[in-house]
Amino acid sequence: MMNVLDTTKQEVIFQRPETLTEVPTHYCPGCGHGIIHRLVAEAIDDLGVRTDTIAVTSIGCSVFAYDYFNLDAIEAPHGRAPAVAAAIKRCNPSKTVFTYQGDGDLASIGTAEIVHAAARGENITVIFVNNAIYGMTGGQLAPTTPLGVRTSSTPGGREAGLAGYPIRMSEMLATLDGVAYIARFSVHTAAQVVRAKRAIKLAFQVQQARLGLALVEVLSPCPINWGVTPPEALDWIAKNMLPVFPLGDIKVTDRVKELLGEKKDA
């Protein structure tokens, strides 16, 4: 006799976040953007602010985020997302506003925008995806590319005397008084994915508490431009990126620590 599955006794333990659209992803195999999209979406769902949230995306692979986030979104010119987000937040202070940017955008053409938004203490959240390479335009050297790493524009590997040193944006921005919270995590292990989600959610909570700019840097794989397989890309992060970009909280102000205490006691 055939056993019939009783659907009335099934429990839903996993589902698509409401903040993500139900469309197939176009990202390359092994790309980290899809994972990071989900973490952002889960954080927004957890806080119940989807209908009051506005995303600002800039140029690069990150520009496609508006196809996947089920909320209002604006595309900014290359590197200008923090300036656009700051304007939106100042005009709509009750809204939750975040930027979604890659390293070729935030750490290069957009350096001035993120530095001055941080210096002003703009009350926005910044999601900074760092894959240490220009992903959309052909795998050229990025400001965050580690020394010795080969790219299409540095086929012999990055040399300090020729191309300088990789920029640690999070550490640099942490020196500015307008920054309330900065953290760096990764998506190359399950444990790091969980920590990244926690940090992203806290960054939104910092904005809700009006404490200043909050930024979460997420180290992300780019197998196609690194010339490795998706599984190898996870090891690539551990080998090439972690020595240059250590993980963890980089700046947590006293007011953010108080916020954490309040959340813990609640």
In the CATH hierarchy, what is the architecture at level 2? 3-Layer(aba) Sandwich
Helix-strand makeup class: alpha/beta
Poorly predicted runs: none
Number of domains: 1
CATH class assignment:
Alpha Beta
**What global shape is seen?**
globular
- Fraction of helical residues: 25-40%
Q: Number of helical runs?
A: 10
Mean pLDDT across residues: 93
Describe the structure.
Helix 7 (190-208) links the parallel strand 5 (179-186) and strand 6. The relative contact order is 0.14. This protein has a single domain (26-265), classed as 3-Layer(aba) Sandwich (Rossmann fold). Helix content is 37%, strand content 16%. The protein is built from 10 helices and 7 strands. The mean pLDDT is 93. The protein has helices spanning 33-47, 81-91, 103-109, 111-120, 160-163, 169-173, 190-208, 223-226, 230-241, 254-265; strands at 53-57, 72-75, 96-102, 125-130, 179-186, 213-219, 248-252. By secondary structure, it is α/β, with parallel strands linked by helices. The termini are far apart. It has a 7-stranded mixed beta sheet with strand order 2-1-3-4-6-5-7, sandwiched between helices.
Keywords:
alpha/beta, Rossmann fold, 7-stranded mixed beta sheet, 7 strands, 37% helix, globular
Could you provide a short overview of the structure?
This protein has 266 residues and is α/β, with parallel strands linked by helices.
Note the topology.
Layout: H1 33-47, E1 53-57, E2 72-75, H2 81-91, E3 96-102, H3 103-109, H4 111-120, E4 125-130, H5 160-163, H6 169-173, E5 179-186, H7 190-208, E6 213-219, H8 223-226, H9 230-241, E7 248-252, H10 254-265
Parallel strand pairs: 1-2, 1-3, 3-4, 4-6, 5-6
Antiparallel strand pairs: 5-7
Helix pairs in contact: 1-7, 3-4
